[in-house]
C-alpha cells in the first residue's frame, strides 16, 4: 500500500506545480524508484480519464478515498498490471471493479475507440503514441559491451547488430540492437523491463535514456583529471563520467538535497564508482578559487528545469499562462547563474550544459546570455550526424525529441575556453607584471624623463648590466654609455666633479655585484657638477691626451 500512498502524494504535488515530477519521485526515497516513477507518470497521463471514471461511479463518496489516491488505485486496477497491494483496500477496490470496468467500456463506445490510449486528448495521445525504445547503457567499470551482448543472446534475445538509421529502433519484443551514435548504449523494445534482471541489480547495466547519456559522452574527460558534476543527483550522469574516466582522477559531485544524495550514493556503490567525492552543498556556494578545485578542468551542469521534455510530463501546462511564464523565467535565471558560476573555475577547459526541457527560454536563450557575459568561451559544434540541431543561430548545440531522435526531449551545449582568450589573458598578466618589475629595479617614471622614451629597459634581458637611468639620464641616448665603464657612477662621483680622479675601469666593481644595491643619485652642487658637464670635461681631457701623443 505504501506504493500507492507515495504515488498519490507525488501526483498531487506535481499537479499543484510544487516541483518537477522526477525531482519529487527521487526526493521520496522510495525503495523502488523506477516502479514509483512509472506509476505516477501513467496516472498523470490518464488523469482526466481517471477523474471521469471516479466521478461517474461516485467512488469517492462510497470509499472515502482521497482523490489522488483513488486515481492511482483505479489506474493499476483497470489499465496497469493489477493492484500491488493486499488487505482491506484491495478488497474494497475489487468490490467496485465491475462498475469501474463498465464505466470505462461505456466511454470507449461513446468515443468509438477500442484502446485506452485512444481516450486521451489529441495532444497527449501524440506523446503516448511516441513509444520510446528502452535504452540501456553498459557500465564499462564492471563489464564490456561485447560481454553484455553475449549475455542477452544467451538469454534468448535476437541481436540485430548496430543500428544504421532511426527506423532500426522499431524492434520486436525479443530483439535488441546497438545504438548508432553512442557505442555503449543498447536499444530494446519499449516494454522490455530490466528492474529484476541480474545485470541491472549487479550494476553491469544502467537504465538511462539515450539523450541523458549525451552530456558525459560529449564532455569526454580524460582519465586522471578533476571533474565537477554540479547538480549530480540522481547520479546516472555521474556514474557515466566515472566510467569514461576509468575511475581515475577526482569527480566532485554536488547536490543540495541530502535525500537525493543518499539515493545517489547507493547507485554509485552498485555501479562500482570509487573516484567520487560527494558533497551535500549548493553548487552556487562552491568557491572556484578554493585550493581543492584548483585542478578542475571539466564541469557537467544539468540544473533543475521544467522537465517539459519528459514524455509523461509533456503538455502538462496549467491554464494560467502568466504563472507558467513566471516559473520559466525563474528557472532560466537560476540556470544562467549556475552556468556563469561554473565558468569561473580558473583551469576550466570545457563545460557541458544540458536540460530535459524543450523550451527555448531554458536552452538557447540561457546559452546566448552566458556567451555575451563570458566572451572568453565559445560553443563547440557537436555530432554532425545528429538529426536535430539547436534553434538558430545556435546550431552547434543539440536537441532531442520523440520524433526526431526517439528519445525524451533534451538539450545539450558544450562550451570551451578558446585559445585567443587565454593568450589575451596571459598578455594582460605580462603587461601588469612589467611595471612592477620596473618599480622594483628603478626609480619612478617622474624621476627618469628620458627612460620613458626608450623601450630598452622593458625588453633588455639583463637590465642590471645597463647604466642606471636614475643616475645618468642621458646614458640611454649616448652610444658610449652602453660600453664605457666611466658612464657608471663611481664612488668618487658623488663627492667630486673632477673627471681626472675617476679610477680605471679595471678598478670598478662588476655590475653583477651591485645590482641588488641601487646607487644613490649624486648631490648636485651647481651647474659645474651636472652629469652633462662631467662628460664634456672627460671628452676634452681625452682629446688633449690624444693630441699630446700625436705631438710626441
What does this structure look like?
The chain has 552 residues and is α/β, with parallel strands linked by helices. It has helices at 2-15, 21-27, 33-45, 47-57, 59-63, 67-78, 87-95, 97-111, 122-129, 145-154, 198-201, 214-219, 236-245, 258-271, 321-342, 364-373, 419-441, 456-459, 511-514, 531-551, and strands at residues 134-138, 158-162, 175-178, 185-188, 205-207, 226-229, 250-254, 276-279, 296-301, 350-355, 377-379, 398-400, 410-417. Strands 6, 7, 8, 9, 10, 11, 12 and 13 form an eight-stranded mixed sheet that branches. A five-stranded mixed sheet has the order 2-3-4-1-5. The radius of gyration is 38 Å and the shape is elongated.
Structure, briefly:
By secondary structure, the protein is α/β, with parallel strands linked by helices.
User: How much strand?
Assistant: 5-15%
Q: What's the assembly state of these chains?
A: single chain
| Number of helices in the DSSP assignment | 20
Measured on Cα atoms, how large is the radius of gyration? 38 Å
* Intertermini distance: 126 Å
Helix fraction by DSSP (H/I, runs of at least 4): 40-55%
* Low-pLDDT segments: 429-530
Report the sheet with the most strands, covering strand number, pairing sense and barrel closure: 8 strands, mixed
Categorize the overall geometry: elongated
Mean pLDDT: 78
Number of strands: 13
How would you classify the helix and strand content by structural class? alpha/beta
Region (Disordered): 435-552
Active site: 356
GO molecular function, one term: RNA methyltransferase activity
Biased composition (Basic residues): 533-552
